[in-house]
Amino acid sequence: MAGRRPQRRPVVELYERIVDAIRVGTYPAGSTLPSEPELASSLGVSRPALREALILLQEDGVITVRRGVGRTVSDGPARRGFERLQPIESLLGVDTAKVRPLVRDIEEPTDLVMQHLPVPASCEVRFWESVVDVEGVAVCLVEEWSVHDEALAAVDPALVQALEDGTAQPHTMLHALASADPGLPLSGASTVTATVLGRRRGLTFERSPDTPVVLITQVVSVDRMPLLATKYVLPSGAPGIAVRQSR
User: Fold this and answer.
1) Structural domain that includes position 65
2) Rounded CA gap, 170 and 176, in Å?
3) Predicted pLDDT at 247
4) Residue 228 above 60 pLDDT?
5) pLDDT (tens digit, 9 = 90+) per residue, 111-153?
6) Residue 2 belongs to a domain
């Protein structure tokens, strides 16, 4: 039904319940969590569901696991980086990063767009191109495509309005959608490649076409339905973005 918000996954709800319990001191920083059977019983959930939430908590650095000790609540919040879905302007610095719009247009989908988004060739999609400046220096080129408006409206009509309103605002598509519906369970999948800037993008940055860059391609989805396809172009010298890894 159009406008109906997808329900949050049970594991996400459970994850947030545990985080809330940590925040209010039920499980203080540095303490060891109860055993799986005890924790599952106190939360009223199954052990498989609890185990999935605990894995996510460990991956996000909220808890750590040590042999012979168990699961321990981390002493401080994990540093959030690209593994946490956030607008690029937030990752590069809320106070110092500024989005400079270059293009706000509606166009026919390219082969690249149709590779990542479920859009028919006959529809039109929104395309935004922006530069993110940090302390006045261009550090990231952002190219974003959305699914067609009918598909966005089927998730939440507010998303279409957010993009309509956002054409005149200095922020990215992801920022616009996340702000329009803060409860929307968005997730992202990204690939990272190394390449060079190229002539057209070199003109944007006023740098040599041979400048090495990190190219991040990201697909943002809600309940496995892709909504956005984005390319982030970060030339050499751009500020670092934390990416945590865990075993």
Assistant:
1) 10-73
2) 10
3) 39
4) yes
5) 889 999 999 888 999 999 999 999 889 999 999 999 999 999 9
6) no
Q: Is 235 helix (H, G, I), strand (E, B) or coil?
A: strand
197 CB-contact burial (10 Å; exposed 0-12 / middle 13-18 / buried 19+) = buried
CA 105 – CA 231 distance, rounded (Å): 16
Confidence of residue 82 (pLDDT cuts 50, 70, 90): low
Q: For residue 58, with 0-12 CB atoms within 10 Å meaning exposed, 13-18 middle and 19 or more buried, which class applies?
A: middle
Calculate mean pLDDT across residues 4-29: 77
Cβ neighbour number for residue 238 with a 10 Å cutoff:
19
Residues 20 and 45 in one domain: yes
Classify residue 96: in a domain, yes or no.
yes
Pair (124, 171) in one structural domain: yes
Mind giving me the DSSP string for 100-137? EEEEEEEEPPPHHHHHHS---TTS-EEEEEEEEEETTE
> Quick one: 175 and 113 in the same domain?
yes
CA 111 → CA 115, 118, 119, 120, distances in Å? 6, 11, 10, 11
Name the nearest CA neighbour of 187 among 117, 84, 37, 91. Answer: 84
pTM of the model: 0.68
Looking at the fold, whether 124 and 206 belong to one and the same domain comes out as yes
Tokens (6 digits) for 232: 């982030």
Query: pLDDT digits over 169-182, tens only?
Result: 899 999 999 999 88
Contact between 88 and 172 (Cβ < 8 Å) = yes
